Amino acid sequence: MTQPTDIRGEHLLTALSLAASGVPVLPLRAGKVPFGNCPACTSNACGGRPNMKTPGPCQCPDVCHAWAAATTDTNVLTSPAWATAWRRAAAVAYHPGGAGVTVVDLDDAAAVDWARATLPATQTVTTTRGEHWIYRGSMPSSNAVRPGVDIKSFMAYARWLGSGTGVTAALPDSVRALAVKEPSPARRAPQRLSVPLRGHGGACPHRTPAYLDRGIAMAEQRITAAGSAVHATVYRTFLAVLSTHGRCGCLTDTHVNRLFTAAQAKGESARHCADAWTNALTALGL
Q: Quick one: which of 194, 259, 193, 255 has its CA closest to 226?
């Protein structure tokens, strides 16, 4: 029977292997949470890290400041100060932004279905309840960008669950768009309800017409399911649709009006729909 100490030794070996490949790592305790700050750093009494986008322990030698403890320094990882944490560790985590990647954390089957219909294929890692989709490139982290979906990159940690399958794709605009907040109302521009979208010379990435239709249907469902923050949901949905389908000329007035109809059924005005669409076009440079 394998003893807990052997398992925890394996966690350290995994951490050292990842650190050697340039991935900043840290131990997690039971419940998949980081270790708390040491007494000297309780409630950030030490002032925290001066540059919170840079992983690595603070000036104290302990495993402090959650994701900011992540490091590639093998001397730190194997130091006596970290030994206690490794003996208690339940898993290994890493700082995605520090490793130059972004993790789209899909927390359930519905979120996975949405990603398969909406996002470009990339490296995929199976989790307890869903999947991690890993893209090459970093960005600000953002939680609950849509039901069951978190974005983990800078200033966040993700549990290491293996390398998964597939080839890591470049971070797409459709993922960046999920974390973008709608511009203030003062910046909205009036526009007609029917907003024709012309092709922009890009190559069409859609395998079949059904891919686009399914994407529009998923967007309608996202708007319809919004229980709060309807304005923000409509804008982010428009942004996601345009980032995926807006450059190749596949979208038609019929598709746009389907989205507008779903938004108006949630109480949005035609003016707000047109403004949100225009803002999304502007944000993406379309």
A: 259
Q: How far apart are CA 235 and CA 259, in angstroms?
A: 11
Neighbouring C-alpha atoms within 13 Å toward the C-beta of 96: 29
pLDDT single digits (tens) 93-114: 999 999 999 999 999 999 999 9
pLDDT digits (tens, 9 = 90+) for 136-192: 999 989 888 888 999 999 989 999 999 999 999 999 988 988 887 655 554 444 344
Residue 196: Cβ within 10 Å count:
9
91, β-bridge pairs: 28
Closest CA to 97 of 154, 23, 175: 154
Q: What is the DSSP string of 163-179?
A: --BSPPEEPPHHHHHHT
State how far the Cα of 161 lies from the Cα of 159, in Å rounded to an integer: 6
Asked whether the whole model's pTM tops 0.90, one would answer: no
CB atoms within 10 A of CB 192: 9
- Cα–Cα separations (whole angstroms), residue 3 to 7, 86, 87, 159: 7, 14, 12, 22
